[in-house]
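I am still getting used to C-alpha cells and would like to learn alongside you. To get us started, please write out a protein record for me. Once you have written the record down, we can walk along the chain together.
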Amino acid sequence: MKEKKLQVKDFVLIGVFAVIYMAVMMVVGMMGMIPILFLVYPSVLGLVAGIIVMLMMAKVPKPGALFIFTILTPLIMFAMGHTYIVLVGGIIVGLLAELIRYSGRYASMKTEVAACAVMNLWAPCSILQMLLAKEKYMALTLSMMPENYAGALERLVTWPNMLLVFAGALVGGFFGALIGKKLLYKHFKKAGIA
C-alpha cells in the first residue's frame, strides 16, 4: 500500500465512527449498573463494537487512523473527570494497535483483526482506575452511584480479576473483529485488504 496521509474527510470519518462507538459504549456500559457485570462490559463492548472498529479501518486504511480513533473516547472520559489512567492506557493501547496495523501495511486482514482486538484493551483501563487511582475513582463513582454499589465495585475490582477483565476484553475484541470481518467483507475487498 502506498502510504497516504490523513485528509480532512478521513478525520471526519474517524470522528463519525468515534461518535457511533461512544454511543454503543454507553449502551453496553449500562450493564455495569450491576456491579459484577461491570467487569464483563469490556468483553461485550469488544464483541459488539468490533464491527464499528473494523468498518472504520476499512474506510480509513491509513497510518494514524486507528490511534486517533482509539484515544478519542479515553480523551473525552478524561475531560469528564476520569483519571489519567484511562487516557494513558488509551494512548499506549492505541499505539500498540496502530503498530500492529502498520506491520500489515494496512492491507492484511490478520493484522486488522489483531489490531481491533488489541484496541479493545483500552476499555479495561476505565476499571483499572479503581486500583491505580482509587480515591479519585471512588469519589467519581460515589458522585453518580449509591454507596453500596461503590462498595461492591471495591470488593470486585482486584488484581486477579483485572487480569481476567483484560483477557476477556482481548477475546471480545477478537471475536468482534471476526464478526466485523465477515459482515463487512465487501468493504475490505474494496479497500484492498486481503
In short: The mean pLDDT is 94. The two ends are 12 Å apart (CA to CA).
